[in-house]
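We emphasize that the prediction below concerns an isolated chain of 32 residues; any contacts that depend on oligomerization or on bound cofactors are therefore not represented. The input was used exactly as deposited, without trimming of termini.
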Amino acid sequence: MIDILLVEDHRELAQLIVSFLKRDGFQVHHVE
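Result of the prediction step, given as a token string:
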């Protein structure tokens, strides 16, 4: 599990995670 410690980095980190999951073939449901 990834703990997000810096709120200002949340969006950028989330995009990296989404890209990683998509690369591995996961279906990603992004909730704003």
